[in-house]
Design a protein that fits this description.
Elements (H helix, E strand, L loop, with lengths): L2 E7 L16 H12 L3 E7 L7 H10 L4 E5 L5 H14 L6 E4 H14 L4 E3 L6 H6 L11 E4 L5 E3 L48 E4 L2 E2 L16 E2 L2 H15 L3 E4 L8 H11 L5 E6 L6 H9 L2 E9 L3 H6 L6 H14 L2 E8 L6 H13 L8 E2 L7 H6 L9 H8 L18 H22 L3 H11 L5 E3 L4 E7 L2 E6 L2 H4 L6
Parallel strand pairs: 1-2, 1-3, 3-4, 4-5, 8-11, 11-12, 12-13, 13-14, 14-15
Antiparallel strand pairs: 5-6, 6-7, 9-10, 16-17, 17-18
Helix pairs in contact: 6-7, 7-8, 8-10, 11-14
Length: 503
């Protein structure tokens, strides 16, 4: 008889607001798929994004079921949630429940967690290799790579070696995510790939999160990496999984969540050629540098409608401090090339890097004005464990405090990184908050000055952002005017533009 493992995923700020949406917890889904593939385990998942999941329900299920192991995944901002859940399990169920913490929270803070919380184990990094090994050795984990626990002498033991942090499996040998254990439809609504407008209405999309690769080789100071080893799945495996999701769940839009989708040109070209016949739309993320016009145009023909760019700042000084390895001219070129290809350029912004001041913030506002980019809420820089900035500022004698106090502080953030928790900019909290508010207001005003009326807002989405919105009802084709007097048809699923509601 198979034993059952319970995996619990963290809440997220995305599940609230005017258009609530849930992101499929892909990390948990991959782990579940790997465990099920062994033939030894059944897996249940409770996702705290789901309004139907709360502490009382989780506790009742743990009481009723003799789970072999309870795994809790979270980010640094989820520390208080994970802490409270662990203590609740101990208080209302007992000490016999084996608990393992995972995800970025455990990866970069396992020693602090093991010393301060009543958990049995932590897993650092990717767990497709380490979790199955732990399940086979729960009573004596020994030196399993990636697994940490408190030994009998009170010291924290961490298993070094191949398979820790980065799974020792080849990326194409990792089992497919266990989609079947999730209520997939609830993860597909309110997920338009570009801002809402008459062409891309989120009601018409059946969108799901998806991965084509893992890792990032860059070293931005604000970002913590599970692994800097960049690995891409085979195009054949990616397309086959897409076909499965299309036929099984009716997915017609893929939110590709790779940190660095556009790193290998030959892979992208092969992917575009093979995904084009599927007639789906998709979005991805990229650095704001080095995107070739011909590759972007091929991506657009293959259904790409949005590339989210890690802009972070419009100041060359701040970009250098961040070790972004890009400059404002790279951002300008990338935004222009995306628009010329008919792809919407999304952006991300951070405020509060060391050295930030009114002049650097004004440079960001000016860059957005120059490029006619929509207003963007700026995220306060947070000192996340595992990042170079965290190493510089956190410690017993550091200006911010020790590791545990930082985790407790981060728990005051709601997951959006829009609350000022740790200020290392050199400005006062009041001044940094004022600059953020005034910059966001100025970007909004600049954008509205260009596109004040509803008609002109449509002009932005249709012309500047690259979407003409011309629709041939007979051929069910969405057109983007690429050259004068030439309409290049770009196939998309017919039901996206037929006005059907797939909510």
């Amino acid at each position: 008889m198979k034993e059952t493992v319970l995996l619990i995923s963290n809440p997220t700020a995305l599940s609230g607001g005017q258009f609530p949406k849930l992101n499929l917890p892909l990390g948990i889904a991959y782990l579940a798929g790997e465990l099920i593939a062994t033939g030894l385990y059944d897996v249940e998942c409770f996702d705290y994004q789901d309004p139907a999941i709360d502490d009382d329900y989780v506790i009742s299920q743990i009481k009723q079921n003799n789970y072999l192991l309870v795994g809790i995944k979270g980010y640094a901002v989820d520390y208080a949630w994970a802490r409270d859940l662990v203590y609740l399990i101990r208080e209302r169920v007992g000490d016999d429940v084996r608990i393992v913490l995972g995800g970025p929270l455990a990866t970069f803070s396992y020693e602090v967690l093991l010393k301060n919380l009543p958990v049995n184990y932590c897993i650092a990094g990717e767990a497709e290799t380490s979790l199955p090994a732990l399940l086979e050795n729960l009573d004596s984990p020994g030196n399993i790579p990636g697994v940490a626990y408190v030994a009998g002498n009170g010291k924290v033991v961490y298993g070094e070696g191949e398979g820790g942090w980065t799974t020792s499996k080849h990326i194409d040998d990792i089992a497919r995510p266990a989609y079947e254990i999730f209520d997939i439809p609830q993860y597909t609504v309110n997920r338009a790939p570009v801002p809402r407008n008459e062409v891309f209405d989120m009601k018409k999309y059946v969108t799901l999160d998806f991965l084509t690769g893992r890792g990032c080789p860059f070293s931005c100071t604000f970002c913590g990496r599970l692994t800097r080893k960049y690995r891409k799945r085979s195009v054949e495996g990616v397309v086959e999984e897409m076909k499965f999701l299309i036929s099984t769940y009716g997915i017609n839009c893929f939110a590709i969540e790779d940190e660095l989708f556009m790193q290998a040109r030959s892979w992208i070209e092969e992917f575009c050629e093979k995904v084009m016949p599927l007639k789906v739309v998709w979005r991805c993320q990229s650095r704001a540098k080095g995107l070739k016009p011909e590759v972007l145009k091929l991506m657009r023909r293959a259904g790409c409608v949005r590339v989210t760019l890690g802009v972070e700042s419009g100041s060359g000084k701040i970009l250098e401090t961040m070790h972004k390895q890009i400059m404002p001219d790279d951002i300008r070129q990338t935004v222009i090339r995306c628009r010329e290809a008919g792809i919407y350029p999304g952006t991300e912004l951070i405020i509060g890097t060391p050295g930030e001041n009114e002049a650097t913030v004004c440079e960001t506002v000016e860059l957005f004005r120059e490029l006619k980019l929509p207003a963007r809420e700026m995220a306060f820089l947070q000192l996340l464990p595992g990042t170079p900035l965290f190493m510089q500022h956190v410690g017993a004698d550091g200006p911010i405090g020790d590791h545990l106090s930082v985790l407790e502080g981060l728990s005051n953030d709601d997951g959006t990184l829009t609350n000022l928790i740790h200020n290392v900019s050199g400005l006062s909290d009041a001044e940094l908050t004022r600059l953020k508010s005034s910059a966001e207001a100025e970007m909004k005003k600049n954008f509205e000055n260009y596109y004040r009326t509803e008609k002109k807002l449509h002009y932005y989405f249709n012309k500047v952002a690259g979407f003409t919105g011309l629709f041939n009802g007979t051929n069910q084709t969405f057109y983007h005017k690429r050259e004068k007097n030439v309409n290049t048809p770009i196939p998309v699923p017919g039901n996206i533009l037929e006005g059907q509601d797939h909510r």
